[in-house]
Amino acid sequence: MTEEIRLLAFSAALGFAHVVAASAAGLGQRGGLAWAAGNRESGGQVTGAAARLDRAAKNFFETFPLFSALVLAAAVSGRQGGAVAWGAELYFWGRLLYLPVYGFGIPWIRTLVWGVAMVGIGFVFAGLFGWAGPGSP
């Protein structure tokens, strides 16, 4: 398994962690297990950390399809390594840090780690097309 595919799998696991964190944090505010087991006719609004974790999960699932598509395209086209690997690392570690930083409500750092992940997607894209300069496949 290449490093990029390993990081893609870890990122998928991180997506699962986002869902669990957002669900667990908001359960009490939404009405507990009775709400979770019911038809959820109401949206069950949340506030505070639960709302931040919910927004973090939504943000993750806005970027993960782009990252996934690019990593898979790189794997299929044999463009692994170099900028693609660096980009996968940046994306994964940026997204990993994003969850607790956003959950704890730390501004500026949240934006910084989001930016790191976005730069990671840019690196994967550049590496896929060989725009990463010398040494890229």
From TrEMBL:
GO terms for cellular component: membrane. Keywords: Membrane, Transmembrane, Transmembrane helix. InterPro entries: MAPEG-like_dom_sf, Membr-assoc_MAPEG. This is MAPEG family protein. The chain crosses the membrane at residues 90-106, 112-132. The keyword Transmembrane applies. Gene3D superfamilies: Membrane associated eicosanoid/glutathione metabolism-like domain. Signal peptide: none annotated.
